[in-house]
Amino acid sequence: MVISPRKTVMNLPPEAAPIEAEILDFFASRNFERSRRFAPGAYDPQILKGFLAAAGNPQYRYRTLHVAGTVGKGSVTTYLQRALNALGYSTGGYFSPHFVSLRERITLNGEPIAASDLTRLWHVMKARAGFEKLSFFDALTALAFIFFAEQNCAVVAIETGLGGRLDSTNNLQADAAILTRIALDHQKILGETLGAIAVEKAGIIHAGQTVFSCSQDAAAAAVLENTCKKVGVQLHIIPDRGETFIEQNQNFVRAVVKTLFAPSPSVLAAIDAALREPIFGRFSELQTMPRVVFDSAHNAAGLAALAVLVNRQAEAECNVFLNTMLERDLMGFSTLLREKIQKKINLFLFPMENSQYYQACPQLQNVSREDIRQMLVDTKKLHLFTGSMAIYAHLRTGFSL
User: Fold this and answer.
1) All domains of the chain in start order, with CATH
2) Hey, how many other C-beta atoms are within 10 angstroms of the C-beta on 238?
3) How far are the Cα atoms of 25, 114, 119, 349 from residue 19, in angstroms, in the given order?
4) Distance of CA 383 to the CA centre of its chain
5) pLDDT beneath 70: ranges in the chain
6) pLDDT recorded at residue 41
7) How far apart are CA 252 and CA 240, in angstroms?
8) Nearest in space to 138 (alpha carbons), one of 232, 59, 39
9) What are φ and ψ of residue 319, in 5° steps?
10) How many H helices and E strands in the chain?
11) Across-strand partners of 65?
12) In angstroms, rounded to a whole number, what is the distance separating the alpha carbons of residues 334 and 340?
């Protein structure tokens, strides 16, 4: 008997707006988001500050919650926006990076910015003096800040891009600084030790804020405590609660919202219901028969959390299709998955044409896309794609998932 694949219905990322090709092309030689931003003299944060000031500092026209961390910051930002909506606020959300479209990065009440609004604001931005000096992330951040003010948002949840201290989003007067789990990632950019990375993340902490953190390793916790003491703000440590990382993030946001907004029992029930809704890219089931899952974990801490979820699944065997950017330790990731996943695991290198991704790895079997298509008919195995957010776009276009 031939089994027809069954796709799962979910809120998938939106289609890219036509203007996105022009935006990405414009910034092809202006991307300072990685090592050049952190090299001495490579990035001047005053350029964006000046641009925002000339635009009337739109980011001061609504309340903001600022989120930094290594793992879970995108989920926490999403959950915060959902909770704010349940509280009755008109809300914005700012995220990075994206799966398919730049529209995912800027949301209004949980919905991606309309293609028409992105196009209109892009042309408005380009006409402003000093625009050509902005980096890609500077420009998108400014565009988002302007959009949220234009839409009369009451509260906006803002996710940092990379680090925090020198991040484009660090131009806020945020009500709260919210720190998710800090772990080793982007060491060549943010620092080789957990303490050094925590210093960059803690750069979003400013006077007058309420500061929240989940449980942290000792080195990161010490940095956050010292920073808060130096700035003169109180640090609220929210212990991890939940069997999985998803549950821990939900409970973390619940505690933050209870402290900041003191919702009534009925509103808290609505918040809890909103938090239970799945987030795309977090163990997202793209197909039920055979079962195909995509997860956007792309660092060691994220993959360790993913392994916990895999171990809870019914299948006794798992095909894992993995790839990541060259700056990350793919061999280390594959070793981690072999050690953490407590079932038979077959590891394959997901083929990526982009030269910034691995083309071979001794611990992963090379396969073609046709090989993968043939494997995906096996209904007895869990088929998992992970290691990079960019993989999803290939699943969508090349595998109709």
Assistant:
1) 19-275 (3.40.1190.10), 281-398 (3.90.190.20)
2) 18
3) 10, 12, 6, 33
4) 23
5) 1-10, 29-42, 185-189, 191-192
6) 61
7) 7
8) 59
9) -95, 120
10) 15, 15
11) 157, 176
12) 10
Are 107 and 95 in contact by the 8 Å Cβ rule? The answer is yes
Rounded Cα distance between 350 and 386, Å, is: 9
Judge residue 271's burial from the number of C-beta atoms within 10 Å of its C-beta, 0-12 exposed, 13-18 middle, 19 or more buried.
buried
Q: Residues 110-162: pLDDT tens digits?
A: 999 999 999 999 999 999 999 998 989 999 999 999 999 999 999 999 999 98
What pLDDT shows up at residue 34?
A: 46
Q: Which residues contact 106 (CB under 8 A, 6 or more apart)?
A: 92, 93, 94, 95, 112, 113, 118, 140, 143, 144, 147
CB atoms within 10 A of CB 350: 24
Beta bridge partners of 156: 64, 92
- Report the predicted TM-score, pTM, of the whole model to 2 decimal places: 0.93
What pLDDT sits at residue 397?
93
| Percentages (nearest 5) of helix, strand, coil residues in the chain | 40, 15, 40
Nearest to 297 by CA among 353, 354, 336, 260: 336
The answer to whether the beta carbons of residues 47 and 133 sit under 8 Å apart is: yes
Tokens 């400014």 found at:
142
For residues 358, 361, 367 and 369, what is the CA-based torsion angle, rounded to 10 degrees? -10
Query: How does DSSP classify residue 1?
Result: -
Residue 325 DSSP one-character state:
B
**pLDDT for residue 194:** 87
pLDDT of 29:
67
DSSP string, 197-209: HHHHHGGG--TT-
82: left (phi over 0), alpha (psi -120 to 50) or beta: alpha
Q: What is the pLDDT of residue 2?
A: 39
The closest alpha carbon to 399, from 380, 366, 382, 375, belongs to 375
As given in the structure block, the two tokens for residue 194 are 């957990």
In terms of residues, how long is the chain?
A: 401
